[in-house]
Amino acid sequence: MDHRKGLVARALALGVAVTLLPALSEVDASASPGCPSVGQAWAAPGPFAVAETPSGAGHTLFHPARLGGCRTHPVVLWGNGSGSTPETYAGLLRHLASHGFIVVAADTGASGSGREMLAGLDHVTAEHHRPGSFLRGRVDLDRVGGTGHSQGGAGAIVTGADPRVDTVVPIQPGPFGDHRLLHGPAFYLAGQLDLVATPLLLVHPRYRESGHVPAVYGELAGAGHTEPTGNGGGYRGPVTAWFRFHLLGDEQARGVFFGPDCTSCAAPEWSRFERNARAQAVPGGR
């Protein structure tokens, strides 16, 4: 039985509903200049008022109501869990938008293939260049992340294979998708008490096999499979810090994950927190 079939077989044995997935991407932390600092208040609302806009093409955009506060704004692609909609996660998606990101959420409960998520990137790319669009000239197409929950976490891994996507955060991801194709940093998130995307079978093994990229594994203490719904629960702050560093070059977020004084490495909210050799080689803060 090959690697992918083995993962699928183990997932099906647990009754996990999933879809299809491949990859990841390398990231530059030099940054979109001019985006307001938030100190280290990653879980608190960001400095931007937020608006929600339907794309008319199968997505909901969560974005700063007045674009331009970061000059151009990085993109975060979002995939929902099976049968869910962006409204299931609206608190989390609005939170990310308040920190300066344009969040493009696929309006589907079947985002595991990653196709709908990448179609969202195609949409904002076209709008960035279209005269008369409210996104005209405001999208930072050089700084793109992918994230999602459960089936959408699998979709996030798929987006990471696309050269336009710099980094991914799969949250309690389903089993499909080839993590060996990832080409940038990955932050794998698991829940200690998750009986659907079980850490032991579906999340930690893929972190362990992602040695070709900087990879971090965070297992949230006491978290079940519905933890990310609503406002993101205990995942909200860490996901925000990861994207603030990797997509906005926010140096205050570096030490959350990297360097010898990594603040997450022994934090009590994690039942398990690990960094692979490439992640351990990323310099810490000054």
Automatic annotation (TrEMBL):
SUPFAM superfamilies: alpha/beta-Hydrolases. Residues 36-250 form the PET hydrolase/cutinase-like domain. It comes from the Bacteria. InterPro entries: AB_hydrolase_fold (IPR029058), PET_hydrolase/cutinase-like (IPR041127). Gene3D superfamilies: alpha/beta hydrolase. This is PET hydrolase/cutinase-like domain-containing protein.
